[in-house]
Fold these 2 entries.
Entry 1:
Amino acid sequence: MTLALTGHGVSRGIAIGQAHLAERNELEIGEYRILANNVDAEVSRLRDALRTAREQLELLSDRVTRSAGTAASEMIQTHILMLTDSSIGDAAEQRIRDELCNAEWALQSQLETILAEFRHMEDEYIRSRGEDVAQVIRMVQTELSKAGTDRSFDSIPDRLADTLVVTTELTPGELALLHERGVAGIVTEHGSPYSHAAILASSLGIPAVFGVRLAHSLLTEGETLILDGRLGVVYADPDDAFIEHYHEIERSTSRFRKSLDEIRRKPALTLDGEAILLQANAEREDEIRLAAELDSDGVGLYRTEFLFMRGAAPDEATQLQEYLVAIAALAGKPLTIRTLDLGADKTSEALDFSLLRSSMNPALGLRAIRLCLRDTDLFKTQLRAILRASAAGKVRCLVPMLTSVHEVRMVKTLLDEARAELQIRGQAYDPLMQLGGMIEVPAAALAIEDLGYHLDFLSIGTNDLLQYALAADRVDEQVAHLYDPLHPGVVRLLHYMFAACTETRMPVTVCGELAGDRRYTRLLLALGLRSFSMHPGRLLEVKQVILETHANRAAAALAHWLNLGAQRQDVSLLRLLDQSQK
Amino acid sequence: MISSTVTIINKLGLHARAASKLVNCASGFSAQVWISRGEREINGKSIMGVLTLAAGRGTELGLRAAGSDEAAAIATITALIEDYFGEGE
């Protein structure tokens, strides 16, 4: 009969294999009195054990750096610091001298004192560090009892493939050793999801369920286990159909991961060697983190509207704090911050824009940069926050929905004023921070060189540009069918823009939905686009198309299509682009 | 003796790795180093002390050092904290 045991899934992933019960000798810590003239001997017994435990950890640290990486080694470094902390060694020595007790007991009562302090901590993560102290002290006690050599943990088989180790609890060092031996999964009775061993299991990708009560008594050596780290469940003695079900899940996830992993590491190059920049559109920290993990080239569009939709308009310090979080999450990759893009479909209760509300036609009204140039206090507060963030990392500033060169000049004047204000305050900023503009207005698109002349880079917001060019709101289902990126007028418009950018060597990115839609990736490459910005979840699938595209051949096919004249309507552009690749 | 204040700015606060770096850094000086949060003051060379400060992001800490290299100790510890403990976040 199948038995299901629950605990904390500390590391996602599935493992199927045979149980190995790692018996750990539970130490019996007894208290006994020592004679006054034996105190010095007992203290040196304590000191020897501390030193031996420390030497073992240092050896282990060297070893796991090679097998499990620096994260594991740093956890062991924390244990080493704990071992050498005066609140363990010195305090235990004091207890031996004051209470004339044995070293094991002195450590035990000191541990209770320390744990009592940790239990008070509000922060669950810090509270879990009490487990680390307990593990470290147990190591020293094991040394003292000379039980260190016959712990059955050392008798664990050398190769653990297809083996799930079941144990009472685990130190990071032990976990690293199990990893070295290829363990399939881990089940422990104790240990919180915040324990160092749990964090390490997760970072090494070892499926693990911690805190399964009585696992050691309820599970049997050699029986088949299924461990589901996502659900935090361990199934013992499952029937064949259940095992097959899990095998299938395991196979499909590993296939999926493998195909993505293969792409993830590859540089984004077309078949004819054009290097493509892949950036992410992101605002939430987890999106930014995902963008960094997927080896993207940074964030090409960081929206700031969310800051203004929480209530009162955020002050400079609050904005700066958010930008710094994003910079940190990107770990050195550039962050393109778009200034406030409110209006039309996005409004904020926080801002009393009576002008905005009275607008008859919000999509064509006072929105985005138009709004910011009206409320210059609000805009300059944001510019100062962005400038200050630029001192902390690679930051670019992007202004949405530019229509005229006059607007660019006004933005630059305000930016100069913001810089001067920071200088007076003595606050740092990057004097070379790049300023870019979003092209979403069709007239601006056809005058892209004029605007580009005054800017460091351009970004094309295809959502609004297409909506304005086609005079169709894609959200309005009555006219959504008119919203067609392949309309010859749209393709011509885009073609004109990219040709102008190529000619003037103006860096240009597409950050609208089109950039993240793999159906149009080949078209954008044919148009000459070399920089994409999209939802991070789309990065890999778009990259896959890039890796399979010959950009020059696609460009030739597009030129052919543009020259077809009125016969174009009979030829599918996308099919033509695909055929050009063969 | 000199003293100053510094604010924790890294995302995870004084978690184990950051605390270890702080203790290692403080232990490199001969000066005594104390770190305080509100009323509570601990030995800056003790990992247990630093952990139990439970200083998350945004916490302001007091630094105090006494000894021949006290100025360098304060400056180096401050720089470490302001550099996000070298973790970039």
Entry 2:
Amino acid sequence: MKRRGTFAATAVGAIAALVISACSSSSSSSGSTPTSTAGAVAFNAGLTSVVNPSSGKGGTLTYDDSSTPDSFDPGNTYYAWVLNFDRLFVMPMFTYKSCTGTCGEQLVPDLAADMGTTSDNGLTWTFHIQPNIKFEDGTVVTSQDVKYAIERTYDRTVAANGPTYYQALLADPKYPGPYKDRSKNLMGLTSVQTPDATTIVFHLQAPFPDLPYVLAFPSSAPVPPAKDTGSNYQLHPVSTGPYMFQSYQLNKQLTLVPNPQWNAATDPNSKQAASKIIVNLNVSQPDIDNRLLAGDVQIDAAGAGVSAAAQARILSNPALKANADNPVDGFARFAYLNTKVAPMNNIHCRMAVEYAVNKVNTQTAYGGPYAGGAIATTVMPPNIVGYKSFDLYNVKSQPTGDITAAKQQLTLCGQPNGFSTNLAYRSDRPKETASATAIQASLAQVGIKLTLKGFPAGSYYTNFAGAPAYVHSHNIGMAMGGWGADWPDGFGFLDSLTAGNTISSTGNSNIAELNDPVVNDLFTKSSTLTGAARTAVWAQIDEQVMKDAAIVPLTYEKTLLYRPTSLTNAYIQAYYGMYNYATAGAKS
Amino acid sequence: MIFFIIRRLVLTVFLLILVSIITFAIFFLVPRLAGQTAYQLAAQYVGRSPTPSEIKAVEIKLGLNDPLYLQYGRYLKGIVFGIHYNNGPDVSYCPFPCFGYSFRNQQPVWPQLVSAAPVTLSLAIGASVLWLIGGVSIGVLSALRRGSIFDRFSMGVALAGVSLPVFFTGLIALELFSYKWPIFPNVHFVPITTNPLLWARNLVLPWVTLAFLYAALYARLTRAGMLETMGEDYIRTARAKGLPERQVVVKHGLRAALTPIITIFGLDLGLLLGGAILTETTFSLPGLGQFTILAIQNQDLPEILGVVMIASFFIVIANMIVDILYAVVDPRVRF
């Protein structure tokens, strides 16, 4: 998932405090309706309770976004905030429960009527959809509409932005997409079958217990084939959710109005809590912050937090601070250590880097404890299911770096006086630039000379840090980056980062190029396990990756979000790490 | 005069073609010379974890694998005759003057430019009226009252106006007049066709902010020009012949001093019509300037190309109008 339209990021959000507090609110978050305790207005109240709860339909709810969405086509998006927002106008097969605390990471059926069943040793999944869901034009949704929505994601000349799990998981990866499908009735995607109007069957290449999580992406939301306009579908997706498009001016403004065909009883995790929703695009961040503080808008759509200036203003004013929340957004910042580029292909050289990095300085570079995040010691952030706290490189006791241990590792690496390598980073990202500079300074203390190599963010993964051939030929031993899970379990977070089979020639996410048989075997093992046994594997993988010293975890990212008093049903949904857009409303 | 205009229009067309060739070369040829392949370029527009065949498909769809002269020819043909593009289920026609379609949002560029242009036009025209009237008036008065308190004060303010960047004065203006004293609250663009009053109310701050910068410049230029002109022999002659001072100043002094102002005004207005990037960004106005920033951030080459062409067009046309006005203001130009 991508945060704020830039790079892969998650939208899973919770913190240790949130986990603890969620226990106390768990009783209120059980059940089929989005229930949570109503909370008083206070700093971080939105992490554990619903602030300004409202059951009625309020006034106009206004969002501002400092950029534009990657697409409002549900089959063509990967931005975290759009995944959150899309639930207002489409119903994917699954969604995350609308409730506070860790309850908000719980996967529940949305369009689906059940959690699905597996057969054929996990190679076949069967789901049923609710029978009476209607599109905005009154047509009843069928399983064929879901199948067609999935087919659309195969044509990346039209839908380039979204995740590619179907191509990777389903049994016919060569399917060209419906626009090039010449089979009768567009039935070319044989791995998805629709035996009747409410049943859909998926055939996988290999067992994959997390398939329901994949179906929580809006790309599983039904699309009527006759209404598909391809690359123009983003201008008016056919709604199944509580709202529908009234108007959309590209790069300017989106207006949603209530969908008369929507039935609250069939969609308990969403609400029609506003009479109209307006999304202003391309609003400058200082302007967004001012409008939020003035109450002119209710939500900063990107959910990436206020600017540094507004942050200072909010934190220094108790009245404003009482209307702010500071969630972990599930995103983690890293320095990847390439296991194939000399001398970083020597584990002791990598360990020297692990010990030497001053994580207090990198935390400051990313914005400090409120906007930067907490200092990290593991690859997985604490909110991921399967997270286990450990600290292999003395970060907790020596967060500014363990110079002695680093020098010992350099000796073992055969480079007692240090070595030289290059560090790639995105030069158009000030925080990342500052963090790279901080790492350069801290490694210089043990004689490791880093040359900073800045690249544009737009092609960072495709042509530079994510292109192994370029990395090798330009001796890039380290690269900055960030990551977040596509779903809140260890597989969703770790697979793309650390599994050997994910190394690709371009757009590579396994930037360390880690191909450790121990890690790979653990991933293979995980596909045959379920429940607690499966969850336990994630911590084992995390620990093995840290033993391999393939990644230097820098921060578990946090954001400072502001909720104006005019925002109703305001609370952080843990999976997204931002306010729950599916239930938010505005006072009349 | 007619032949003059026709000649300039023909030259304008050639100039725009030249601009398009240079711009196209900058965005498509230079990266190739630097070693970037069409495959690498296409990889930027396929999202995460693409397979080689998916990148190849995008490369073919965007025509990046064709020789550059073919790509340019297709681009030019699209502008003149329109072009068909594949949107998935069917093929859409993008009519003249289609500037290609975006690599990112897969929408034709021209409608997006047309949608952004009224915002920039509203901003530029309104601000230019303000700065022209304000700047020239202050310049004239300062010149006529040289050394007075008014002169010193207005030139001091002008110096501040020239020195302070728009993103600073804009933010201050917003903070003071939109949030602290909400005389102009919640500034956002409203089309003039929707509500002329709201259109004007929401543009007052951007107009004043932008005009403050330019008015300062124009005041100083006008003052300098007037001081020089008012010292000319023909002004003394006019006065000696008993012409009223007002007529001497306006008809003989200002008219001559205006010539360089018109030249600069044409260039400034042309540039602004191509997008007032800082002002539009500061006030979140969805005009061509903001469109440019977004296109650059997204590395959306057809959109960048489109906005460069539009900006060039405005600058060339503004220059042509300046030349015509020049001939009107100063009859010597016609001979």
